[in-house]
Specification:
With about 160 residues, the protein is an alpha+beta fold. It has 5 helices and 4 strands; from the N terminus they run E-E-H-E-H-E-H-H-H. This is IS3 family transposase.
Length: about 160
């Protein structure tokens, strides 16, 4: 299966507090199932007592009945950007900008598996654990969360 000269789609769920990638999935088509599967992964990776806001653009996948049902199932409250206004989703837009610049645009992929491996290496091996963020006072997403949860347990 060659993905050369074609598109693949990456669905990423970021934690707004730490900028950490908490779930991601790659497929050859942008469908509601790509989003619902990523939501399910995020819900496995995070526990929360209160409903959590899930912010996205107004793409048809995100506004579909299947995604609305998945959000309800996982107690996620939908929040949508204004139409044609990417600044409402600036955190995700910036993430994709840097992922493309730092990893994806400098490579040519032969298979979907190659893309998945590159995404895994970037997000899990670099972005969450080694890439500092100005928003996080130059801590990585993992460091920001570790500091927050460790400091919270001291009191």
């Amino acid at each position: 299966m060659s993905v050369k000269r074609s598109f693949v789609y990456l669905c990423v769920i970021l934690d707004l507090f730490s900028r950490k990638v908490i779930a991601w999935k790659v497929k050859q088509r942008m469908t509601a199932s790509l989003v619902t599967e990523t939501i399910a992964l995020a819900s496995q990776n995070r526990t929360y007592d209160e409903p959590v806001i899930f912010h996205s653009d107004q793409g048809s996948q995100y506004t579909s009945q299947a995604v609305r049902q998945a959000l309800d199932k996982h107690r996620l409250v939908p929040s949508f950007s204004k139409k044609a206004y990417p600044w409402d989703n600036a955190v995700n837009e910036a993430f994709f900008k840097y992922m493309k610049k730092e990893e994806l645009n400098r490579r040519i992929f032969q298979t979907l598996g190659d893309v998945e491996l590159a995404c895994f290496e970037y997000m899990e091996g670099f972005y969450n654990s080694k890439r500092p963020h100005g928003f996080n006072d130059m801590l990585t997403p993992d460091e920001k969360e570790n500091y927050f949860f460790h400091a919270s347990s001291l009191f």
